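Question:
Now give any protein.
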Amino acid sequence: MNNSSKRIQQAYNIAHQQYAELGVDTGQVLEKLNRISISLHCWQGDDVLGFEGSSDISDGGIAVTGNFPGRARTPDELRQDFEKAISLIPGHHRMNLHASYAETNGKQVERNELQPVHFQGWIDWCNQNHLGLDFNPTYFAHRHASDGFTLTHTNDGIREFWIEHGIACRKIAEAIGKATGTPCVNNFWIPDGFKDLPADRKLPRERLIQSLDTIFSEKMDHEHTLDAVESKLFGIGSESYVVGSHEFYLGYAIKNQILLCLDSGHFHPTENISDKISSVMNWIPELLLHISRGVRWDSDHVVLFSDDVKAIAQ
């Protein structure tokens, strides 16, 4: 044991004794923490570019570039990066995958035609590494999202395309849950909104209700998949009005008893989602947390040991 390890062990022994005086067994605490699985997101490895072959992901309410140095260029490279990350992170964790990370063997497959077979490589890899796998439909970076609207689009054909994408993703998530033996959390976020003040705030939300009701009409076993919906305060191109606001999705999650996702970077900078947890948990079965830091208009999906994160844990 080197000097650094000795100092850490000595510090832990002191803390262990101090906590024991308060009736806390730190060994049991660490054992419980080791059983908590965190779902690490795929887009930290390649800036949300995915593997559809596109070099531009700026369409549809998202403003990352997909070109940061050292990003994974292939599914195998991303899996290697993930293996390295989890080797350095204590505990037993999961991966969170977007639909745009499908492996189609070079064939162009439309998002509304995606099937579980296009994610078999990810499923096999997770089983080999004893990992859970979570999922997200991809409602951005697509020609049908170029004007910033998907499930609330006024064009019936485009709206139907995205409804079909959501249905396909639920079937994929169900297959993932069955294959991995652990429920796959399937989280829905859409970029729909207006840059300036809209004349009508109600109709887009009515269309969103109709779209979501169609997507979620088939009941699925919670042992295999858990549906979640995620709000946002505003984004690029939706500065003045976001259809899927916190209030909208809170009501929808309560009514339909599905998971509500709270992203700590998707609210006003003076809001802390820790204060919302004790309220919303009275009305919904489970909560999905995106623990991150807010940087100006969005979450940058980097976790710091900040006061906000400690408050969420408390």
About this structure: The two ends are 34 Å apart (CA to CA).
